[in-house]
Amino acid sequence: xxxxxxxxxxxxxxxxxxxxxxxxxxxxxxxxxxxxxxxxxxxxxxxxxxxxxxxxxxxxxxxxxxxxxxxxxxxxxxxxxxxxxxxxxxxxxxxxxxxxxxxxxxxxxxxxxxxxxxxxxxxxxxxxxxxxxxxxxxxxxxxxxxxxxxxxxxxxxxxxxxxxxxxxxxxxxxxxxxxxxxxxxxxxxxxxxxxxxxxxxxxxxxxxxxxxx
Amino acid sequence: xxxxxxxxxxxxxxxxxxxxxxxxxxxxxxxxxxxxxxxxxxxxxxxxxxxxxxxxxxxxxxxxxxxxxxxxxxxxxxxxxxxxxxxxxxxxxxxxxxxxxxxxxxxxxxxxxxxxxxxxxxxxxxxxxxxxxxxxxxxxxxxxxxxxxxxxxxxxxxxxxxxxxxxxxxxxxxxxxxxxxxxxxxxxxxxxxxxxxxxxxxxxxxxxxxxxxxxxxxxxxxxxxxxxxxxxxxxxxxxxxxxxxxxxxxxxxxxxxxxxxxxxxxxxxxxxxxxxxxxxxxxxxxxxxxxxxxxxxxxxxxxxxxxxxxxxxxxxxxxxxxxxxxxxxxxxxxxxxxxxxxxxxxxxxxxxxxxxxxxxxxxxxxxxxxxxxxxxxxxxxxxxxxxxxxxxxxxxxxxxxxxxxxxxxxxxxxxxxxxxx
Lengths: 213, 421
Prior knowledge:
The complex is a heterodimer. Chain A has helices spanning 14-20, 38-48, 50-53, 89-99, 110-123, 154-157; strands at residues 10-11, 35-37, 132-134, 149-151, 178-181. Chain A is of the alpha+beta class. Chain A is extended, with a radius of gyration of 27 Å. Chain B has 3 domains: 4-46, no CATH class; 74-287, Alpha-Beta Complex (Sulfite Oxidase, Chain A, domain 2); 296-417, Sandwich (Immunoglobulin-like). Helix content of chain B is 12%, strand content 29%. Chain B has helices at residues 9-17, 23-30, 37-40, 134-137, 167-171, 184-191, 216-221, 386-393; strands at 83-84, 105-106, 119-124, 130-133, 143-150, 174-183, 199-204, 212-215, 224-229, 232-233, 243-245, 258-264, 279-280, 286-288, 296-301, 313-322, 328-334, 342-343, 345-347, 356-364, 369-377, 406-409, 415-420.
């Protein structure tokens, strides 16, 4: 550590730490005492969550899908949900408790959150409908994609390939051909004249190149 | 604007034979047939008054620059408070991003926090859990750093093809500011990190919290807790009054409105580092903790929002390059789709982990071009093509697209976002 303490700040009180440190780590560190079952979770979810995420956590309109997508991670369009993708149950509890419902976060009690988490496990086919999730049995749940992640390996798999003196001349086997054009999709916001929004204004109506006599 | 390239052979010959870059313009002026009334007639602004000095205590850009604004693309996200907008990099020069048009990315909107209400807590595996006020933070030794903040998703919608029309949209989830603040290591020293502490978890005051885990080595290296950007307080939408600056690393980790720094013995694996900001690979597994943003560049003009309207002759190719792994040492430019490359000029300073401006001056003959730029950083890493990245990662990586961008310059001077093969 580079500096000696300057004596700034004051001691954090335990009730202040409890109010703000609600993080839950994968090993269960940070879990509050409490419990909730699937049936209660279904009710709490219906009241607080289903208007966006659907009655079965399947997602309404373009709101996030929380259940489903099993074995889709190598599909052309993977469906990444709590069940198909998320590695740890701790993240579900932590994120729901702290940041959901969207627009009225931090309104769920620990027991509400246990119940919703149990319901999401049920929606994803991970537990039966009589399951009760508690701070005691929480870490016994292993998510389907728990082994689906590995730390950044670009230093081994990419940097060696992309390092070195690059080609400067005669780099291509033939004449390049256009294979994709954004203009074909027409999904960019446009100005009134149909050009991409924010196109620089025209500065002159004069012919671009006056004839040289 | 002309519909057709207006190049006669004699002019081409003239330009090719001319050593002076300005010769074409001089010839134009010399051949004006009628006197320009903007010169020969006294204009109002040359006779009357302009605005008084009390007209604008805090100025905004002149109205003629109204196109230089942030823009969003509604269909990209389901809600405008958990969404993104884009910096107008097609219209900017140099390296410093004006704060007022620097991109935003929120997960629960841009919150309104006062310096009076502001609190910062340090807790966890520390000797002295602490609470700081904003006033406290202003008493720590200050440091300055200039760094790019690039969203991990910048260019993400281009993984599968060419989709959006303009570098504002395809490369504009980025800004570059000069920050003043205090080093995170100095705040941590105040609390005293215990030997079991290996990770720092930082979260914001907003409802989304945006908690991210940062390994202690990075936290003790160059991470800054910043109050000032480009000379003044942070803008509300950029984390007022306090944000994290994490040089070289993905923008999501630049936690805004930070309220808590916790030291743990393991990563929290929060939502923003499991569900999001993990990068799906072809085998169905995913990379996590892909923190660094690799070397990247883009030609900002000509580009789809900055077509060539001045006809053939001298043409400035200008662009940005950057690397999270250090300093940009070189940028190469190609006008033939990548068959031939020439080094561009680095204009100004090439600072480590900061936007770097390059220029390449050429004489455009009015024919079609595929223009590309390719950054090289001090580690020797050369910016790859999109296909080279897809060969390793497939097309569902979502994040970390640092591929070479291709612009197709048409003979009429219009410019398109394309892929070529």
